[in-house]
Structure to design on (560 residues):
DNA sequence: GAAGTCACG
DNA sequence: ACGTACGTGACTTCA
């Protein structure tokens, strides 16, 4: 969103390339760039690049659109080996046995002394830039047959490449944020935080840096001696994480206050005070960046700022969502999320008829699971039974152990073990499916999603039971989490296509793994609400329904 | 830059 | 006997 255009390097033949530089003056840059319009807008010429979303966004900010076929080496390699890094220097080293010029040798290390590429000697600039273009072209020649060999071409061409442009649109669009509201939240938080600090220091009888886990541990366990045998972290420091403190909280007032302080300071530092600084000067909106090649399962990630982890679980935290608002009074926010998509997928992929039946009947899956495992009628399921069933349902997706389940609930190890056993008796096919996934991974060295997205599990046959168990859990989890990611990606592509084709004023703004957030023009709401629901629910055909819940509101909290 | 912590799905 | 639920990103401290 801020980058200047210093130069563009081209290569269309191995070992050869050309470099075009641009002046600092934006208008002059625009005039020169116009000469390349026939190239960038050509529907015939394929543009090959590394992380093209970045280039497309920069060009867009200079009023240049990129059309026609594209090939992205980063995305190609993400499908070829999702667990590896996908930087150009790593790829060049791995696949071309070639050491690239490091950018640091040209502009220096990160920090205030780092130079702009514009100030680098033109010969060095040219060498660096042309090398980039040359290598990218050479990698493409290697990755194209590799995608084909692993049956990834369809996923690549029909999902990841079209999604690249959709994400570029969403990032350029940004989202409107009520900065005044955040400022007032910040003042409220400051008061409560200072109050808590005063009380904590007084109860501890010493002032220290509350934000330092090291100092906090010493105060709690050396100075106040709250327990005989404090738990330690792997570096030998006292552990003071939430699990440890929650256990101590009922016995010591100070601990409850520390937990509250931790919660409030997190909200203030990470969200309330940080988000206003992320508002772009020119657009007045917050523009996240989605990483399409980071999560090994096929999910997206979001950074600078991360808009996929805005609080919702606590009352104080969810207030922050009120700061995310529509473009103006003619718009409203629409949030649409898949209901239980991962459990629906495990039901579908395993073919378990009992679990599928619950979804076909439109039942609340956790309630229905509770009724079955605790052997009571649906109407008589207690809150606690439903909660335990919910924990097991999610645990199964991750490969939970009796230890893990008893940790997450108030059940003993023995009770947890029995609950898991009853669970598998309730959904008998699920157990077979898990075994089948692990067997497949052992035989093939990878598992795959409904669209053939692979994850390689190199430790699946390891002698070391710890790393082997890790891969066994991934053999079950990756296809579930990854297939859910596949489905929402299809929906995003199809929705964006309609929004653009029919020139809607409404925009898709955010993706949060199983949720999409839209800025909807009020005149378009009646058409788009059912359209979006349809596109999401029908993105991929399963033998059970996909269900999408949606709501509108004047802010993200109301819409959710 | 590692470690500890904690926010989300 | 061992370790113990998947996937992320950001902030703060501290060596």
């Amino acid at each position: 969103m801020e980058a200047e255009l210093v130069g563009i390097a081209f290569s269309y033949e191995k070992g050869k390339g050309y470099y075009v530089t641009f002046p600092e003056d934006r208008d002059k840059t625009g005039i020169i760039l116009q000469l390349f319009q026939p190239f960038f807008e050509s529907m015939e010429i394929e543009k090959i690049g590394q992380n093209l979303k970045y280039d497309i966004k920069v060009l867009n900010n200079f009023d240049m659109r990129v059309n026609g076929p594209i090939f992205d080496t980063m995305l190609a390699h993400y499908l070829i080996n999702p667990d590896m890094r996908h930087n150009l220097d790593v790829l060049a080293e791995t696949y071309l046995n070639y050491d690239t010029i490091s950018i640091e040798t040209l502009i220096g290390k990160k920090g205030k002394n780092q130079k702009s590429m514009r100030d680098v000697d033109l010969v060095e600039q040219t060498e660096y830039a042309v090398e980039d273009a040359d290598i990218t072209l050479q990698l493409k020649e290697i990755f194209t047959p590799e995608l084909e060999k692993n049956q990834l071409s369809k996923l690549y061409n029909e999902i990841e490449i079209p999604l690249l442009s959709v994400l570029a649109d969403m990032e350029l669009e940004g989202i409107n944020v009520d900065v005044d509201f955040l400022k007032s939240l910040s003042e409220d938080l400051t008061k409560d935080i200072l109050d808590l600090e005063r009380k904590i220091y007084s109860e501890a009888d010493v002032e220290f840096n509350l934000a330092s886990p090291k100092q906090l541990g010493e105060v709690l366990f050396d100075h106040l001696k709250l327990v005989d045998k404090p738990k330690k972290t792997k570096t030998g420091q006292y552990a003071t994480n939430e699990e440890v403190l929650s256990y101590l909280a009922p016995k010591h007032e100070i601990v409850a206050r520390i937990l509250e302080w931790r919660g409030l300071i997190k909200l203030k530092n990470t969200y309330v005070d940080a988000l206003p600084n992320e508002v772009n000067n020119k657009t007045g909106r917050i523009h996240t960046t989605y990483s399409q090649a980071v999560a090994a399962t096929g999910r997206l990630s979001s950074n600078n700022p991360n808009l996929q982890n805005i609080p919702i679980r606590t009352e104080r935290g969810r207030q922050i969502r009120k700061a995310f608002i529509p473009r103006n009074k003619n718009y409203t926010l629409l949030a649409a999320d898949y209901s239980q998509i991962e459990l629906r997928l495990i039901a579908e992929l395993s073919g378990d008829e009992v679990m599928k039946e619950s979804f076909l009947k439109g039942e609340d899956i956790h309630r229905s699971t509770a009724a079955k495992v605790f052997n009571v009628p649906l109407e008589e399921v207690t809150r606690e039974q439903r909660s335990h069933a919910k924990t097991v349902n999610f645990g199964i997706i991750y490969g939970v152990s009796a230890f893990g389940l008893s940790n997450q609930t108030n059940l003993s190890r023995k009770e947890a073990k029995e609950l898991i056993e009853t669970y598998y008796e309730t959904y008998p096919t699920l157990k077979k499916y898990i075994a089948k996934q692990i067997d497949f991974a052992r035989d093939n060295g990878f598992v795959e999603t409904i669209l053939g997205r692979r994850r390689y599990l190199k430790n699946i046959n390891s002698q070391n039971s710890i790393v082997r168990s890790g891969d066994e859990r991934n053999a079950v989890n990756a296809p579930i989490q990854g297939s859910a990611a596949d489905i929402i990606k299809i929906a995003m592509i199809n929705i964006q296509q309609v929004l653009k084709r029919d020139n809607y004023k409404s925009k898709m703004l955010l993706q949060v793994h199983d949720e999409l957030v839209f800025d909807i023009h009020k005149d378009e709401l009646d058409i788009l609400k059912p359209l979006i629901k349809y596109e999401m629910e029908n993105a991929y055909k399963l033998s059970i329904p996909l269900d999408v819940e949606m709501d509108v509101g004047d802010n993200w909290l109301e819409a959710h």
Notes: The longest strand of chain A covers residues 331-338. The radius of gyration of chain A is 27 Å. Chain A is about 55% helix and 10% strand.
